[in-house]
Amino acid sequence: MTQSVNQQHPISLYLKIWGWLFVLSSLSYMVDYLQLQGALRWGLILLFMLLKAGLIISIFMHVAWERLAVKLLLCLPPLAILVLIGLMAIEANYTFLSRLLFFSQPG
Fold it and tell me: Distance (Å, rounded) from C-alpha 107 to C-alpha 105?
């Protein structure tokens, strides 16, 4: 005979997460309202986006209650892709600057 374990999360947890999502969304709208520009604008937009996605994935998709192996399976591939994109951006800047230096030298 097996017993099924029914785990119920309190509604207050979900309401708190909705509140945080509202605050983060308001802050991301404030970035546009204050007309921030450049790297600060995009850095804040990406930060708020990642925070909101993390809250949604961890609480509403119940990843916070999964085993460490499942969390690593979900998190490590995107992190590896971000590292590789960063390395490619560094290499692209190096290539661009070296070509700029080479082609700007007189004949």
Answer: 6
Burial per residue of 62-99, b for 16 or more beta-carbon CB atoms within 10 angstroms, e otherwise:
eeeeeeeeeeeeeeeeeeeeeeeeeeeeeeeeeeeeee
Q: What share of the chain is helix, strand, coil (3-state, %, to 5)?
A: 80, 0, 20
pLDDT tens track of the chain, all 107 residues? 556 566 777 899 999 999 999 999 999 999 999 999 999 999 999 999 999 999 999 998 888 888 988 888 888 999 999 999 999 999 999 999 999 999 988 86
- Report yes or no on whether pTM surpasses 0.85: no
